[in-house]
Amino acid sequence: LDAIDEPGRVRFVPTRNLNALFEGKPGQTLFDRVIQTVHDAGPGLSAIFNAQSYSDLMWRGGFDFTRRRFIFRDIKGNRFEAARFAPSQSPQAERVPLQVIGPFQKSSGLGQASRLSADTLRAAGLNARFVDFGLEGNDGVIYRGGTTLRAESFEGEPLLITAKTKCITVPEVAKDGHGNPIPVVKSINYLPEITGLDLNEFRVSAVDDTELAANENAKGHKDALELPDTTSTRSSSFLCANSKAQGTFSCQLVSPYPGNIPLVIYCDAAQCEMPVLAVNQQLQVSASWTVPIDFSGNPEAAGTMIQKKVQQIHDFLKPLSSAL
Question: What is the dihedral of CA 174, 179, 181, 182, to 10 degrees?
């Protein structure tokens, strides 16, 4: 009976048992006799509810009880229960946004299912928000769903600037393999000299929406491209804009991380700044470094050098966390 609300449950009952339950004349199947036994109406119940009524209810729920499968498919043949409803006619702005909640950073079956669901939604062109959460492991520890980053190198050297680490107070933090608590932080700053990347600043931080922050950061670059005195340089991996009037040089690059969130770096005669490199929906990387050459005189070489620096930053972070 629970399958009337969740028809898919029927598929977990052995076929032989289902056949035995529904064989017979209308009102005389084993299903009918059992229902009549447990209901106060007794045999009279068959006048309003019987095996055929049950099958009809399942059909209305989008499930073919005879063939034991859902009956609604999209135009590509994928089962999709919502395909039986007419498309929404309300404006996009009035619709409730899709939100997917799951342990996206966890190395588990549910974590993998969450990541695959996210990939499917993105491939379908749906604008969804993804919310990470933690799970209680077999050891009884509540593992927070956010990205875990190493605070020391594999040689044991400190990687972080302690004074610039912003911690958040939460109960029941996870512990590392040595029993040390893993603090939950809002942002961390890496020691530039320990990275070997010739950086002036290197920060990883959590924000409410990296896409919103990245789009805001990209506005200056987009505006520069519209100026009449701007010279643009394009390749397969970057689009740079050199504005003489503003005295600015900016490049939009292909991000080393998945998704289509814009990555824009701004440079002047002294240094380059990368305000937002979006790792995922809530995690971003910021960095700055000294300019080694006059970018305005050789924009193509500049774009290549900036792309190389971004890749170096990505490669540095990758072994420090399974999520990066």
Answer: -60
Q: Which two tokens stand for residue 267?
A: 């440079």
| Average predicted confidence (pLDDT) for the chain | 80
φ/ψ of 298, rounded to 5, equals -145, 70
* pLDDT, average across residues 187-201: 92
Q: What value, to the nearest 5°, has the Cα angle with vertex 152 and ends 151 and 154?
A: 135
The two beta strands, 238-243 and 248-253, are antiparallel
- Beta carbons of 106 and 142 less than 8 angstroms apart: no
Identify whether the C-beta of residue 50 lies closer than 8 Å to the C-beta of residue 32. yes
Q: What is the mean pLDDT of residues 241-249?
A: 83
For residue 213, is pLDDT > 90? yes
Q: How far is Cα 39 from Cα 31, in angstroms, rounded to an integer?
A: 12
Q: Distance (Å, rounded) from C-alpha 133 to C-alpha 139?
A: 17
Give the residue-averaged pLDDT of 262-276.
93
